[in-house]
Amino acid sequence: MRKEARRGKVLVSGLIVLFCAPVTLSGDERTWIYAVLIYTGCSVAFACLVVIMWSDPGVVKRSPERCFPQPKSIIEALSESKGVNKIQGNVKVGEHVFCGRCLVWRPAGTKVHHCSICNRCVYGFDHHCGVFGRCIAAGNIRPFGLIIMMGFATFWTWLVFLSSELLWDLGFQGGYGEVIASVALATFCTWLLLLIIVKACCVCPHKQ
Length: 208
Ligand SMILES: [Zn+2]
Ligand SMILES: [Zn+2]
Known about the structure:
InterPro entries: Palmitoyltrfase_DHHC (IPR001594), PFA4/ZDH16/20/ERF2-like (IPR039859). By secondary structure, the protein is mostly helical.
């Protein structure tokens, strides 16, 4: 997971440098609006990264009240020396569910799932993110959504800026034609990237 978390930090920091470098180096007054948008997007994304990395995703905390009394079937399985890893599934007792892997009672009436990578139960679990090395759950799903939105929005703005610079150098200087061509090219590339990412994603196999 540490390797995963490092990957996430390097990826976001690398993208921030990649997006900020051209507008910073350009120093062109004509494109100041792109600089403002890109710096804003990167600042928000960085703040989201900090929250995702260092906040509690919503782990069901272990405590004597949360762990005991254990259901009979769990006590039997443990006494037979099956070991915690051999106990499969959850034990339902009335309204309450006991997780047979991390051995805690899940609070009744809440959406809790077990993450098989972190080996813990988490409130509002959505998936385990392989990029950030964190469960994405109730505590961090908003900054996670925002960092993705900022990523695409900043990527799009960065492409519009690059297209505009390219068209300017090719002689299409000023006018609506240059703006429309830049926006169209950037939108097409962003849509293509989005399509590739959606195709590559699948249902989280770690949700139990
Ligand atoms: Zn669990
Ligand atoms: Zn996890």
